[in-house]
UniProtKB/TrEMBL annotation:
Pfam families assigned: LRR_1, LRRNT_2
Gene Ontology terms: cellular component: membrane
UniProt subcellular location: Membrane
Record's bilayer topology term: Single-pass type I membrane protein
UniProt entry keywords in alphabetical sequence: Glycoprotein, Leucine-rich repeat, Membrane, Repeat, Signal, Transmembrane, Transmembrane helix
Major localization class: membrane
PANTHER family for the chain: DNA DAMAGE-REPAIR/TOLERATION PROTEIN DRT100, L DOMAIN-LIKE PROTEIN
Name under which the protein is recorded: Leucine-rich repeat-containing N-terminal plant-type domain-containing protein
Native source organism of the sequence: Vitis rotundifolia (Muscadine grape)
Occurrences of domain Leucine-rich repeat-containing N-terminal plant-type (ranges): 31-70
InterPro entries: DNA_repair-toleration, Leu-rich_rpt, LRR_dom_sf, LRR_N_plant-typ
Family: Belongs to the RLP family.
Length: 172
């Protein structure tokens, strides 16, 4: 009887682990995206047009202005489109966490500080437009990990040095 009870318990525990793991994993992933967006917002010190006022708990983050989510992978952020909003602040390194991101457009704002090298974690990233901001320092070599990157616009910033060679189109 004891053996039966304990193997039943073990079976139940295993079943629970089996049933719960996928759910936990997927909610942790979209929690990652939510936390990354909150960190992004925390990096912003001025939002003169109130663009980020919709970034609050009463709306799902997929409905926050400028945030677009995947239709196939529910609750995963694929696009961040916040151009010409007069945003002032720095770009949070957590921007490298929502790994479904394909497009980041922050053109014509006043972002300063570094372009975070954590962007290298966005292996699906195709479009990165940071033009007309005040980004400083070097372009991180880590962008070369974004192997899908097709559009990179960094014009009109305060960047130093060269674009990493690996990112330049081949010259042959
Ligand atoms: C996370 O995903 C689960 C399952 O898909 C969903 O029920 C939940 O609402 C999601 N949470 C957020 C914050 O998107
Ligand atoms: C959250 O954002 C929505 C949409 O912009 C807005 O209607 C609502 O008042 C906001 N809630 C809070 C608590 O700021
Ligand atoms: C740049 O953004 C400002 C708002 O901060 C806006 O007034 C201006 O028209 C924008 N310029 C372009 C070319 O989009
Ligand atoms: C660049 O930013 C300045 C200052 O916000 C703005 O006046 C100008 O229209 C912007 N240019 C472009 C091409 O976005
Ligand atoms: C650079 O990118 C790699 C690969 O995506 C990532 O694992 C690493 O954390 C990034 N390094 C930094 C300093 O962000």
């Amino acid at each position: 009887m004891k053996a039966f009870v304990s193997s039943f318990l073990l079976y139940t525990v295993l079943l629970c682990i089996h049933l719960w793991r996928p759910v936990t994993a997927s909610s942790m992933q979209n929690e990652t995206d939510r936390l990354a967006l909150i960190a992004f917002k925390d990096g912003i010190t001025q939002d003169p047009l109130g663009m980020l006022s919709s970034w609050n708990d009463s709306l799902h983050f997929c409905r926050w202005s400028g945030v677009y989510c995947s239709r196939r992978h529910v609750h995963r952020v694929t696009k961040l489109n916040l151009f010409s909003y007069g945003l002032v602040g720095s770009l949070s390194p957590h921007i490298g966490n929502p790994t479904f991101l394909r497009t980041i457009v922050l053109q014509n704002n006043s972002f300063h500080g570094k372009v975070p090298s954590e962007i290298g974690g966005l292996f699906r990233l195709q479009v990165l437009v940071l033009s007309n901001n005040s980004f400083e320092a070097k372009v991180p070599t880590n962008l070369t990990y974004c192997s899908e990157l097709r559009v990179l616009n960094l014009i009109d910033n305060k960047l130093e040095g060269k674009i990493p060679e690996e990112l330049a189109p081949s010259q042959n």
